[in-house]
Amino acid sequence: QVQLVESGGGLVQAGGSLRLSCAASGIIFRNSAMDWYRQAPGKQREWVARITSVSMTNYADSVKGRFTISRDNAKNTIYLQMNDLKPEDTAVYYCNRVFPVGSWGQGTQVTVSS
């Protein structure tokens, strides 16, 4: 059974940085492409970034150039380095496997104040 645990969120001022982590278990992590998503209050969950099993990356236009996704296969963990944060980045951030999608974790709250 896939388990995903997100952490690293918090309250930060606009222009600041945070680094999110997502620890995965119950999957062959090194073979898995992984995504970060986020959900802002009153909005649908949106895709943020992807990293493949060979560490190729892709980003939503809204975060390109500011966010960096990475992985550590030894720790079964992916990361999301978020720089130059904006108030519109405020959301609960989630990770998941690309396919098949697993159960969603509890997410980690990121709040960016202006």
Account of the 3D structure:
The structure is a single chain. The protein has 114 residues and is an all-beta fold. 0% of the residues lie in helices and 50% in strands. The protein has no helices and ten strands. It has strands spanning 3-7, 10-13, 18-25, 34-39, 46-51, 57-59, 67-72, 77-82, 91-97, 108-113. A six-stranded mixed beta sheet has the order 2-10-9-4-5-6, with no helix packed on it. The termini are far apart.
Features:
six-stranded mixed β-sheet; single chain; mainly beta; 114 residues
Question: What is the strand and helix layout of this fold?
Answer:
Elements lengths: L2 E5 L2 E4 L4 E8 L8 E6 L6 E6 L5 E3 L7 E6 L4 E6 L8 E7 L10 E6 L1
Short note summarizing the structure:
With 114 residues, the protein is mostly beta strands.
Radius of gyration from CA coordinates = 13 Å
Order of helices and strands: EEEEEEEEEE
Helical stretch tally: 0
- Assembly state (oligomeric): single chain
Give the averaged pLDDT, no decimals. 96
Terminus-to-terminus distance = 40 Å
Could you say which structural class the secondary elements and strand pairing correspond to?
mainly beta
How many beta strands in the DSSP annotation?
10
Beta-strand residue fraction = over 45%
In spatial order, strands of the major sheet run 2-10-9-4-5-6
Unreliable runs: none
Q: Describe the biggest sheet? A: 6 strands, mixed
Q: Tell me the overall shape.
A: globular
Helix content: under 10%
